[in-house]
Write a structure and sequence with these properties.
alpha/beta, Rossmann fold, 4-stranded parallel beta sheet, P-loop_NTPase
């Protein structure tokens, strides 16, 4: 069982879009760090209450008078206890996450088969 801790800080920021192996990356990061990784899976199966929080962050990000502090605080609240992020919706906030966690590694999954279609 993975440990969840409020002292956990983001070690890896996944910037890849869905369907690029983000779930496999989530599982690998959870094995490596023995702590949870935030992925769309969390919202769908574990934390549906996060949907409204993400919606507020998305709404805030489109305001013409952008208050980054609200976004940073919201991300901090949502990702508290996680060691990494992959997939949507967190990958949409990769710039903010890189600012918040400057020592984190950044991983970009890509789907090499898209060009075949």
């Amino acid at each position: 069982m993975m440990e969840t801790s409020t002292s956990t800080t983001i070690q890896v920021i996944g910037v890849g879009l869905p369907r690029t192996g983000t779930n496999s990356m989530k599982k690998a990061l959870e094995i490596i760090y023995s702590k949870p990784c935030y992925h769309m899976y969390e919202i769908i199966f574990k934390k549906q209450s996060d949907i409204s929080k993400w919606q507020k962050l998305i709404d805030e990000s489109y305001k013409t008078t952008l208050d980054k502090t609200k976004i940073y605080n919201g991300l901090n609240e949502l990702l508290n206890g996680y060691v990494a992020t992959t997939d949507l919706p967190s990958c949409a906030f990769y710039k903010e996450l890189m600012t918040m966690y400057p020592n984190a590694k950044v991983n970009m999954n890509v789907n090499i088969f898209v060009s075949l279609f």
